[in-house]
Amino acid sequence: MKTILVPTDFSDAANKASLFALKLAKKNQAKVLLLHSYNLPIIDVQSGVLSANMLYSSVDLDEFELFKENNKKLSELAYSKGLEDVKISHKIVLGELNVSINQCVKEELVDFIVMSTSGDHDWFSRVMGTNTDSVILTGNVPTLVLPDGCNTEDWETIGFTTRFKETDKEAFVNTIDLANKLGCTIKCLHVVNSANKVSDEIINSWKENFESDKVHFVFDTSENVMDGIENFIDNHQIHLLGMVTYKRDFFTELFTKRLTQKMTHRVHIPILVHHA
Question: Which family is this sequence assigned to (predicted)?
Answer without folding.
Answer: Belongs to the universal stress protein A family.
